[in-house]
Amino acid sequence: MNVEKLIRNIKNCTKCGLCKERKNAVPGDGSYDSEIMFIGEGPGAMEDLKGKPFVGAAGKLLTQLIESIGFCRENVFIANVVKCRPPDNRDPLPEEISACWPYLEEQIKIIKPKLIVTLGRHSMGRFLRDLKISEVHGQSKIANGIWQKKQFYLPLYHPAVALYDPSKKEVLFEDFKKISLILKQIKNDSP
Ligand code: URA
Ligand code: SF4
């Protein structure tokens, strides 16, 4: 499927109940040539309003984190597990996550990221089973992939957590510093 069609399908999607209260679906943003994908949980109020991912307070911090390691938002890809805002920012329900999952799968197949960075435990839980974010944040993991058998993942705290817990902000900046090294290692290891 081409990118334009995929975006159109997401914007018009009615596959789960989250379509009822959304203002805008949020397909994701950035470069489809990126080696790295950042995957959050779901849009908040500001994202719903603008139709773009991570444009509220947590998004500001994510932008700073990305820039702190010499990348810019335009050159990476930022997406969410669910594309429409859960009312009152509640956690997405399992049936909403399942209904939306094929869109993220399709994005991963198009982008073919070398590294998937999960933001928060809900996003991590979709890709890596039975891990505790407090124990594994900042450690790269290899697990089943969607476009390749062995996929590298880096589970990180969600930037929203750092907004009310400043110690997590420091941890996030430290964990982000590992991204370039992990990408280098992946390239050295690949045939
Ligand atoms: N939190 C998320 O998980 N995703 C967004 O797009 C914004 C905030
Ligand atoms: Fe469709 Fe996903 Fe939005 Fe549900 S959350 S309506 S599956 S785009």
Structure description:
The chain is of the alpha/beta class. It has a single domain, classed as Uracil-DNA glycosylase-like domain (Uracil-DNA Glycosylase, subunit E, 3-Layer(aba) Sandwich). It contains nine helices and six strands. Strands 1-3-2-4-6-5 form a six-stranded mixed sheet, sandwiched between helices. The longest helix is centred in the middle third of the chain and has 18 residues, at about 95-110. The model has no long low-confidence stretch (mean pLDDT about 95). The structure holds uracil and iron/sulfur cluster.
Topology, please?
Layout: H1 3-11, E1 29-30, E2 36-40, H2 45-50, H3 57-68, E3 77-80, H4 94-111, E4 115-119, H5 121-127, H6 133-136, E5 141-144, E6 150-156, H7 159-164, H8 166-176, H9 178-189
Parallel strand pairs: 2-3, 2-4, 4-6
Antiparallel strand pairs: 1-3, 5-6
Uracil (URA) binds at residues 40-44, 47, 53-54, 58-59, 80, 160.
Largest sheet: spatial strand order: 1-3-2-4-6-5
- At CATH's second level, what is the architecture? 3-Layer(aba) Sandwich
- The CATH class is Alpha Beta
Q: Ligands bound here?
A: uracil, iron/sulfur cluster
Would you give the CATH topology? Uracil-DNA Glycosylase, subunit E
Gyration radius from CA atoms, angstroms: 16 Å
Question: How many structural units, i.e. domains?
Answer: 1
Structural class: alpha/beta
Distance between the termini: 28 Å
User: What string gives the helices and strands in order?
Assistant: HEEHHEHEHHEEHHH
- Low-pLDDT runs of 5+ residues are none
Provide a count of the helices.
Answer: 9
Q: Judging from the principal axes of the Cα atoms, what is the shape?
A: globular
The chain-level mean pLDDT equals: 97
Give me the CATH superfamily: Uracil-DNA glycosylase-like domain
Based on DSSP secondary structure assignment, what is the total number of beta strands?
A: 6
Biggest sheet architecture: 6 strands, mixed
